[in-house]
Amino acid sequence: MKKFEAGRGKRYFSLAYLVISILILIGSVHDSFLYKETIAEVISVQTKASAQESGTMYEQEIEAKILNGVWKGEQISLTNLYSKSLTVDEKYRKGNQVFLSLSEKDGALEGKIAGLKRDTYVFAAFLIFFYFLCMATGKRGLTTMVSAGINIVLFYLALCFYEKGSYIFLVTIILMILFTVLSLICASGVNRVTQAAILATLLSVAAVGVIYFIVSKLMGEPEYFMMEYTEYLPNTNQFGMLFFAQILIGGLGAIMDVAISISTTAGELIFVNPRISTESLYDGVRNVAQDIMGTMINVLFLSYFCGAIPLILIKMINNYGFTEIFKFHIPFELIQFLTGSIGILLAIPISTWVSIRIFKRKGEVA
């Protein structure tokens, strides 16, 4: 009976969610009045190809209708040039909505396409993600999204503080503490498992920070001039601290995942057998740790190095040697990967020790 009611509840939820999603997507198609930027809808496109030394280029003659602003309802002729690779340009189709920069010349309206309006696609992807999250985790899906929303707000506030001249190291420390505490409380509630996971996460990240600081002082810091953002920072002393913050925040998620997994395992073993011995608890946690360790390290590897694949391929196509690529472009991803992996390895014994200490303090471990 309960399964039937649960299944019926999911069907009602799915139907209501589908209706709401359709309304949201329809609204996103007609929300141009909410934007300050000028938006136009492509109503016709004519494309012609031309051979050039760099390859075949395609020129689009576009007729578009302006959807907002003082020129709302006016039609405008636009030109768009794109290559087959679409690396740094875009191809537009009938029905696309685009952002325009407009100007008047000799009484005639001229425009240039600034980019594609993508909010409908973003909403669609988010709605699909949120639906499957709710179907898989139930109410936990909502708390997960609340946690993600809070973290986004915190990250934005941290950037604002840094922009105003705040010390980036202090801002990073506060941000990581808030990320850890709020994320784990939203995910697991307020209990001893969460308490153990929070303490283990912070201790592991602190250990990683100390190790990186010692190694960088002994071996020398990487050549920051190869990083993408160095040309935008007048103060070269900021490079090292920015990269250090990037390492800590980048590895925080994986370390947090390991810490909550170990703490939850310890809590479940104690729940099943309240008088379990410390040795048996260590053995049970160790088995789980061995299963998740390799997976989490692979996640870090794919996360860091996959982002560098386009740059590596472009460099190789332009006859850059792999040795040169490895020397000047891969070190930053490699440092982040190795540091994060060390954090995962440290999080396992630290989480185990913290969990046992916390539960032992409550008299639940023999």
Describe the structure.
With 366 residues, this protein is an alpha+beta fold. The chain has two domains: 1-137, no CATH class; 138-361, Up-down Bundle (Multidrug efflux transporter AcrB transmembrane fold), CATH 1.20.1640. 64% of the residues lie in helices and 15% in strands. The chain has ten helices and five strands, in the order αβββββααααααααα. It has a five-stranded antiparallel sheet, with no helix packed on it. The longest helix has 35 residues, at 238-272. The radius of gyration is 27 Å and the shape is globular. The protein starts with a helix and ends in a 5-residue tail after the last helix. The model has no long low-confidence stretch (mean pLDDT 82).
Could you name the key traits of this structure?
single chain, 366 residues, alpha+beta, Multidrug efflux transporter AcrB transmembrane fold, 5-stranded antiparallel sheet, 64% helix
